[in-house]
Amino acid sequence: NAGVTQTPKFQVLKTGQSMTLQCAQDMNHNSMYWYRQDPGMGLRLIYYSASEGTTDKGEVPNGYNVSRLNKREFSLRLESAAPSQTSVYFCASSESWYRTDTQYFGPGTRLTVL
Amino acid sequence: DQQVKQNSPSLSVQEGRISILNCDYTNSMFDYFLWYKKYPAEGPTFLISISSIKDKNEDGRFTVFLNKSAKHLSLHIVPSQPGDSAVYFCAASAAGNQFYFGTGTSLTVIP
What we know:
heterodimer; A: mainly beta; 4-stranded antiparallel β-sheet; 0% helix; B: mainly beta; 6-stranded mixed β-sheet; 5-stranded antiparallel β-sheet; 55% strand
């Protein structure tokens, strides 16, 4: 039981390049999330998927797109990376979107955009 | 604008003593609060929660206190252990379910 896995662990991009961050969970959870963590800012919600087939914007969605590929997988895409997107990205999942359901986090992807 | 603030970036405590981590919020609509713990190179893990209908919640060595009038919550760890050394995040939500996180406090428990 791996929980929430994220790939890659580290990535360096040049400005304008694109990439997709992958996330998968094996807990049969309905809801999945993407957060970013920046120094002095805490974790901020980028996008979430309350259930398979739905996605919604969070607090900081600009510059990102997401795909809920199936119940297990939720990917985050940067179409044209910018230095402001240098951050640590965390994927999380929970039984449901209801806030009392515990969110389980992956280990994070450290992204640097030059 | 940061709605959830942790004004102490770091805290050092002797093993066996009490650790008190503080969190302030500005949005009076927040009514559900969480604490997460994070070790380096790992994702945050859930620690304890509290609803605004309560002012205290305990789970073993961890107790969270909520002061709604002051818009303040605190996490008490008693007794502190070296394995508690980590970054602690508080988070808050209103009815919309999205959580807003503080910037974290790095706790070091000295053996």
